[in-house]
Amino acid sequence: MRLYLIDASLYVFRAWHSLPPDQFTDVEGWPVNAVHGFARFLLEMLEQVQASHLAVAFDQSLESSFRNELYPAYKANREPAPEELKRQFSLCQDFTRALGLSVMVDDRYEADDLIGSLMTRQREHGFKATIVSADKDLSQLLGHGDVQWDYARQQRWDASGVKERYGVHPHQIADFLGLAGDATDNIPGVPGIGSKTASALLEHFGSLDALLKRVDELPFLRLRGAAAHAKRLREHADMARLSRQLATIACDAPLPAHIADARRGTCDIHAMQSLMDQLRLGPMTRRRIQAQMV
Q1: Phi and psi for 7 in degrees, rounded to 5?
Q2: Exposed/middle/buried for 107, CB within 10 Å: 0-12, 13-18, 19+?
Q3: Domain extent listing, the chain
Q4: N or C terminus: which one in the chain shows less Cβ crowding within 10 Å?
């Protein structure tokens, strides 16, 4: 059986930035461009895959993740979401629930963690997962039979394709980010070690732990700046480990009982009708919603 796991925030943000807010307003005059764009994406995807088991994960907050307790500067480089966008995130969740789909959201765990936790649990019940996201972090979850799908580019890859795509294997992605860092999430990594060097080091040593344990071997490798890299790793070993911890997807996040196996439910006709009117959805989107009610 196949379980589809959607990283919703990516598609909400994409719609927020690509659709003009003044052209998409609800009955009260609030901008709902992100909701319109997300609804189009979700409906189009459902038309393509006809999924029986599907969960949609949202990020609740940029400031309250457990990672902020470990490293207060985590994602501190991002601007707080404006109130208009927060309101639209809530409406996107309402729309998803009204379609009969499972919504996952938590104050302390991010969407990636919720995806990883449900994926890990359902793997024990014979499910293979398709992760709908372009986020490279999620590739660390890929195992045999799993697929990641960058929906916007219509690109798919499995665990065997991660090395060609990112230069490391799925189980090395967190180690890779521990070394190279991730500017998007404000994960520092080791100063002076970029992605190419991180890939080369993991190619040779296999893991961050092995690299740090055998760091005295590093200056003798045929790698440009090897001695300087060894010095940096000795000085910043703790930061490398912390960065890896920040980049590691938690697969033990608490999941609400109603998620169960994420089997798709029936559309809530009354809730959906109310949303369609409130959001002033157009006739084409309404027809697509009606088709999902059958």
Answers
A1: -85, 85
A2: exposed
A3: 2-163+250-293, 170-247
A4: C
This prediction's pTM: 0.95
Question: Which CATH number among 1.10.150.20, 2.170.120.12, 3.10.129.10, 1.10.287.3510 corresponds to the domain 170-247?
Answer: 1.10.150.20
- Sequential pLDDT tens for the chain (294 residues): 999 999 999 999 999 999 999 999 999 999 999 999 999 999 999 999 989 999 999 998 667 799 999 999 999 888 888 888 999 999 999 999 999 999 999 999 999 999 999 999 999 999 999 999 999 999 999 999 999 999 999 999 999 999 999 999 999 999 999 999 999 999 999 999 999 999 999 999 999 999 999 999 999 998 888 999 999 999 999 999 999 999 999 999 999 899 999 999 999 999 999 999 999 999 999 999 999 986
* Alpha carbons 127 and 125: distance in angstroms, whole number: 6
Tell me the helices (H) and strands (E) count for the chain, helix number first: 13, 6
C-alpha–C-alpha distance, residues 32 and 84, integer Å: 8
Question: Helix (H, G, I), strand (E, B), or coil: what is residue 31?
Answer: strand
Cα 20 from Cα 18, distance rounded (Å): 7
How would you list the strands of the sheet with 155-158, edge to edge? 102-104, 54-57, 2-7, 128-132, 147-150, 155-158
Cα–Cα distance, 52 to 80 (Å, whole number): 35
Domain covering 2-163+250-293: architecture: 3-Layer(aba) Sandwich (3.40)
